[in-house]
């Protein structure tokens, strides 16, 4: 039997992509499947946590009854939903692939194909995790990083800049890692430690991440 190591804890997890509307039928998005976040939600729920899963568009469905799923579309909606719950959570894990920019204006009617070139002005989205870090009191915060260069330095930089307790670095160099696959290869950084893991299924990566959180947070 699974030991209920997270009994009595509330864990908030962001997952999936965000879609940023251009007009009523079009959006800017990305290929995030939501698998890493949904795997983390299942594992945290199995360990006895109450899970608040806030996900952008994903075909996945939660299985465990302790998972309270909130489906949102845009980064702005994800931010608002996170802060409905932020004061009530013990642990926050940001695994969503939030769009960095959104169209400055959303056309109210479908945009017609007239000109030969077409420009969309984009405006920076709120950084949800950074905002969580700024408002942190008792919460233990975990972020993800996906880097193509100076990956370890950039990951450690984000740990500090976003006021996190832990950051999970996804390797892009390794075959099978990354956000559309069923497998992932990670390194975890805390303020003092660096832990490297082998390539494994996202279910097993979720176990490693939660073991690490428990070792840091419940100690
Ligand atoms: O800064 P960068 O996008 O690389 O940081 C990645 C981390 O920040 C991830 O944990 C991601 O979920 C989170 N993030 C966020 N809101 C954004 C951008 C990133 O919560 N607008």
From TrEMBL:
Residues 11-219 are annotated as: Phosphopantothenate--cysteine ligase. Signal peptide: none annotated. Binds 1 FMN per subunit. Its EC number is 4.1.1.36, 6.3.2.5. Pathway: Cofactor biosynthesis; coenzyme A biosynthesis; CoA from (R)-pantothenate: step 2/5; Cofactor biosynthesis; coenzyme A biosynthesis; CoA from (R)-pantothenate: step 3/5. GO terms for cellular component: phosphopantothenoylcysteine decarboxylase complex. GO terms for molecular function: FMN binding; metal ion binding; phosphopantothenate--cysteine ligase activity; phosphopantothenoylcysteine decarboxylase activity. Catalyzes two sequential steps in the biosynthesis of coenzyme A. In the first step cysteine is conjugated to 4'-phosphopantothenate to form 4-phosphopantothenoylcysteine. In the second step the latter compound is decarboxylated to form 4'-phosphopantotheine. Catalyzes two steps in the biosynthesis of coenzyme A. In the first step cysteine is conjugated to 4'-phosphopantothenate to form 4-phosphopantothenoylcysteine, in the latter compound is decarboxylated to form 4'-phosphopantotheine. This is Coenzyme A biosynthesis bifunctional protein CoaBC.
């Amino acid at each position: 039997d699974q030991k209920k190591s997270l009994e009595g804890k509330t864990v908030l997890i962001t997952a999936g992509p965000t879609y940023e509307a251009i007009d009523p039928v079009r959006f800017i998005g990305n290929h995030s499947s939501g698998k890493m976040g949904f795997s983390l939600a299942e594992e945290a729920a199995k360990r006895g946590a109450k899970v608040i899963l806030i996900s952008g568009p994903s075909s996945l469905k939660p299985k465990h009854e302790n998972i309270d799923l909130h489906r949102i579309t845009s980064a702005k909606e994800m931010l608002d939903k996170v802060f409905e719950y932020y004061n009530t959570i013990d642990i926050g894990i940001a695994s969503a692939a939030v769009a960095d920019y959104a169209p400055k204006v959303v056309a109210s009617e479908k945009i017609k194909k007239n000109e030969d070139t077409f420009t969309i002005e984009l405006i920076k989205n709120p950084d949800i995790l950074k905002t969580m870090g700024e408002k942190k009191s008792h919460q233990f915060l975990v972020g993800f990083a996906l880097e193509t260069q100076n990956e370890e330095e950039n990951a450690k930089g984000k740990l500090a800049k976003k006021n996190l307790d832990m950051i999970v670095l996804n390797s892009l160099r390794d075959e099978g890692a990354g956000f559309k696959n069923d497998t992932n290869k990670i390194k975890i950084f805390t303020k003092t430690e660096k832990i490297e893991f082998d390539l494994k299924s996202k279910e097993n990566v979720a176990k490693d991440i939660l073991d690490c959180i428990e070792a840091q947070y419940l100690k």
